[in-house]
């Protein structure tokens, strides 16, 4: 497989066809200005044959570490453990990688230096949070503090390492229970599938060690609820969002839409937002 392409469209490869990747692939297949779906990587191709057969233009099926050869942009929609295998080959070739499992970047931070050295880019979509534009802008000045409180339904927290390791019983909760309070860096270790938004917030602002996070198991909510408060020299602001879970209760529906919105910006004639 070579890096040559026959049109001026940007080729996009999607790693993982779960609740996020399948929606991204569908949107690309239906048409995003200046982009084309060139390849996908899945653990079990047979499992996704029906989905792939329903696409108007069938992409190549490739191993995750070869996607960078078949695309200008590689979109990571896979488990965090696969992040490096997806991103490293792409940025080594000077390509762009869209990272959904942003929490995994904290353990693979050298990928940023690798991308810089080779002309690659790592793009983090806004995901399930709002207001990252405001945080980015405030970070140009001085941010004093960033706090985030996440409340999730019980189904969205089952199996989290923090809960398993500490033997926390959340199944019979009748009222909200604060599970964790600490830095974004520590939060993502205990809840890797739940607080990617906290890491994105930290990277936009004052970093994973100074960004403070609370995680609550809340049987009174049916949506993934996030609230952030920012104190900066330019502004004081707070934001809240209640995300409807996707078919994967750990992931909000808006996460896939955020990836699609980011892809649309890559070749859009009009681009709104920083």
Estimate the mean pLDDT confidence.
93
- Biggest pleated sheet: 6 strands, parallel
The unreliable regions are none
Q: Any idea what the radius of gyration is? A: 19 Å
| Portion in beta strands | 15-25%
Order of helices and strands: EHEHEEHEHEHEHEHHEEEH
**DSSP strand count:** 11
Our count of helices gives: 9
Helix coverage percent: 25-40%
Strand order of the largest sheet: 3-2-1-4-5-6
Beginning-to-end CA distance, first to last residue: 35 Å
Morphology call: globular
Class of secondary structure makeup: alpha/beta
Tell me about this structure.
- It is a single chain.
- The chain is an alpha/beta fold.
- It contains nine helices and eleven strands.
- The longest helix is centred in the last third of the chain and has 13 residues, at 253-265.
- The model has no long low-confidence stretch (mean pLDDT 93).
- The strands form two sheets. The protein has a six-stranded parallel sheet, with helices on both faces.
- Helix 7 runs antiparallel to helix 8 (196-204).
- It is globular.
Brief overview:
The chain is α/β, with parallel strands linked by helices. The chain is built from 9 helices and 11 strands.
Features:
single chain; 274 residues; alpha/beta; five-stranded mixed β-sheet
Helices and strands, with pairings:
Layout: E1 10-15, H1 21-30, E2 35-41, H2 49-53, E3 60-61, E4 73-76, H3 83-92, E5 96-99, H4 110-118, E6 121-123, H5 132-140, E7 143-152, H6 161-165, E8 177-183, H7 184-190, H8 196-204, E9 212-217, E10 224-232, E11 236-243, H9 253-265
Parallel strand pairs: 1-2, 1-4, 2-3, 4-5, 5-6, 7-9
Antiparallel strand pairs: 7-10, 8-9, 10-11
């Amino acid at each position: 497989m070579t890096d040559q392409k026959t049109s001026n469209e940007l080729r996009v490869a999607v790693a993982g066809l779960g609740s996020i990747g399948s929606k991204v692939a569908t949107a690309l297949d239906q048409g995003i200005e200046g982009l084309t779906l060139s390849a996908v990587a899945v653990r079990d191709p047979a499992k996704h044959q029906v989905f792939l057969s329903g696409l108007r233009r069938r992409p190549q099926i490739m191993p995750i570490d070869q996607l960078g050869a078949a695309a200008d942009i590689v979109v990571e929609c896979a488990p965090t453990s696969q992040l490096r295998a997806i991103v490293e080959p792409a940025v080594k070739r000077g390509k762009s990688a869209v990272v959904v499992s942003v929490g995994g970047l904290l353990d693979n931070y050298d990928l940023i230096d690798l991308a810089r050295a080779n002309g690659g880019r790592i793009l983090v979509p806004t995901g399930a949070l709002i207001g990252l534009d405001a945080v980015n802008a405030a970070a140009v000045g001085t941010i004093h503090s960033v706090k985030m409180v996440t409340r999730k339904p019980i189904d969205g927290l089952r199996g989290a390492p923090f809960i398993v390791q500490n033997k926390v019983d959340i199944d019979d909760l009748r009222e909200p229970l604060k599970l964790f309070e600490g830095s974004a860096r520590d939060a993502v270790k205990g809840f890797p599938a739940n607080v990617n938004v906290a890491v994105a917030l930290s990277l936009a602002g004052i970093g994973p060690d100074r960004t403070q996070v609370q995680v609550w198991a809340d049987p009174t909510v049916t949506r993934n609820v996030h609230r952030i408060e920012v104190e900066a020299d330019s502004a004081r602001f707070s934001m809240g969002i209640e995300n409807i879970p996707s078919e994967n209760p750990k992931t909000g529906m808006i996460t896939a839409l955020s990836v699609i919105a980011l892809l649309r910006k890559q070749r859009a004639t009009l681009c709104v937002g920083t």
